[in-house]
Known about the structure:
Elements: H1 2-20, H2 23-38, H3 43-46, H4 57-74, H5 78-86, H6 89-93, H7 100-129, H8 135-163, H9 166-182, H10 195-201, H11 205-217, H12 224-251
Amino acid sequence: MRTLREAMIVFRYQSTLLLREPVWIIMGLVQPLLYLALFGPLLEPLSKSSGFPPGDAWQVFVPGLLIQLAIFGSMFVGFGLIAEIRYGVVERMRVSPASRFALLLGRVMRDTLMLIAQATLLVLVAVAFGLRVPLAGALVILAIVAMLGVALSSFSYAAGMVLKSEDALAPLLNMISVPVLLLSGILLPMTLAPRWLYDLSRANPFSHVVDAARAAFLDDLTLASLLAGLLSAAGLAAVGLFIATRTFQRETA
């Protein structure tokens, strides 16, 4: 109970800092909206080709966009922590009696809440473009986005705490995010890929997450791919929190 109370204190403080600079919230949503408006219509003719997954172009493309939003909306939060290290905020954390897990959890909660708000707005805009999504499917994908937000923001904070340098963190995150993006089928379904590339993509947990998101948008909540995606997202969240908590405990001891 004490840990949760301390996490809420950190959450409110971090949320206040974010609301003072709302431009970051807007910037995080602009890129997916541009993809929605400028890339989505190109998929409509492609949706009639063989190998395209079930559903129309929007039911295939928008779930991928939501996963992309989760990746790029959470993966770079570690830069903010590096700034806090530079300004002595983390140094003051060393003498704080607060739980190290609470110091991490409050930040992760802030990032995840912002991500859910952005994802909700993106779905509402996509409906105006022609997306048809069942309520249950929308709730499932918001849960997936939330778990990815927890996972990737935790990883990012852990990397920022260890590296303590934007010059080191930026290439690391780019090196990870590019293959994750290309092998997940976010922009184009991997069912359109050659067999060797499709098989390679199966080793990427994010490809299973994308498949689960598309299954949810088709209101097919019984597919094995949906279960695999949910388990992948939950596993990433658990591993991310574990690694980040250990890192916070070690670096602020």
